[in-house]
Amino acid sequence: MEQFNWHIGQEITIRDGVFPVDFTFKIIGQIPVDRENIVSTTLWFPRQYLEEAMQPYGGFGQIGLLWVRIAQPEYVNTVITAIESLFRNSGAEVVAQTEFSYLANFFSSLDGLITLITLVGFLVVITIGLIATNTAAMSIRERSSDVAVLRTLGFSRHTIFALLLGEGILVATCRGVLGSGIAYLLLNTGKSSWSQFFGPLSVFSMSTPVLLQGIGLASLVGCLSSISPAWRAVHMNVMVALRKIL
Questions:
Q1: 169 and 158 share one domain
Q2: 100 with 115, same domain?
Q3: pLDDT means per 10 residues in the chain (246 residues)?
Q4: Domain-embedded: residue 96
Q5: What are phi and psi of 14, to 5 degrees?
Q6: Domain range holding 149?
Q7: Which whole-number Å values give the CA distances from 160 to 62, 131, 157, in the listed order?
Q8: Rounded Cα gap, residues 128 and 225, in angstroms
C-alpha cells in the first residue's frame, strides 16, 4: 500500500499483458504482514470478477491451484488420497500435497538458477579483484620514485609496505562504502514513492549484515590486490628508481 501510495477506498486500475482487459478495483482493506521487513505485493480479489471480465473473450475457465484447509493435521494423508481419487482417470487429474511439500518443490526448481547466480557473482568478484590488482600495481609503479625517496630518508621497508597496503585498503573500503551504500538505498525503498519504477526489483531488500559484508569484501579485495604491488615496490633497487627523478 505504501509502496504505491494506495489507501483504503481508492479505485485502482491494473493493466497486464496476460489478459486483454483492464481490471478496476476498489481497495476495501489491507492484510497485515506479521513478519518484519517483508514487502507484500499480493492483491486479492474475487475470482468471479475475473470470470465476468473474460466473458467477451470466451471466458477464463481455468483453475491452476486450490488451497484446502483441513481441520485436523492427522487427516492430511486421508484428504490427499480422497482428492486424488476424485479426479483420477479424468480429463483434469490433480496432484495433492501439503503446503510444505508444495513450497519445497517450488523452490527446489530454482536451485539451478541460484547456483548460476552464485557462480556469476563469484566470477564477478574474481574479475574485480584482477582489475583492482592491476590498478594498484599501476598506481604504485607510477610512484616508485616517491618510494625511493622515502627509502633514502630512512623509512624502513615495513613502514613503506604498511603505508602502501593501508592506502589500498582505504581506497577499496571507501569505494565499497559508496557502492554498497547506493545499493542499500536503492533496494530498501519499499516505502518510497519512486520505488515503483524499479519494477520486480522493488520487492528485494538489502539487510544491514549484507551491507557490512559488501564493505568487508571490498576491503579484503583491496588488501589482497595491494600486497603484491607493495611488496615489489619496497624491494626495488633504490638507485634505479632515483635515476627516474634525475
A1: yes
A2: no
A3: 82 79 87 59 82 79 81 88 88 84 78 84 85 81 79 84 89 90 78 58 76 90 86 79 65
A4: yes
A5: -105, 125
A6: 111-245
A7: 73, 23, 5
A8: 10
For cell 488451497, the residue is: 67
At position 127, the amino acid (one-letter code) is T
pLDDT value for 208 = 87
| Cα 66 from chain centre | 31
DSSP states of the chain: -TTTT--TT-EEEEE-SSSSSEEEEE----PPP-STT---------HHHHHHHTGGGT------------SSGGGHHHHHHHHHHHTTTSSS------HHHHHHHHHHTTHHHHHHHHHHHHHHHHHHHHHHHHHHHHHHHHTHHHHHHHHHTT--HHHHHHHHHHHHHHHHHHHHHHHHHHHHHHHT-TTSTTGGGGGGGGG----HHHHHHHHHHHHHHHHHHHHHHHHHHHTS-HHHHHHHH-
Residue 134's DSSP bridge partners are none
> Could you give the number of structural domains in the chain?
3
The pLDDT, as a whole number, for residue 212 is 92
Amino acid sitting at position 9: G
- Considering the domain architecture, whether residues 129 and 241 belong to the same structural domain is answered as yes
Half-sphere exposure for 71 (CA within 13 Å, toward CB): 0
CA 17/CA 22 separation, integer angstroms: 10
Q: Is residue 45 part of a domain?
A: yes
Residue 43: CB atoms within 10 A of its CB come to 11
Q: What is the pLDDT of residue 37?
A: 45
Is residue 78 a contact partner of residue 70, using CB atoms and an 8 Å limit? no
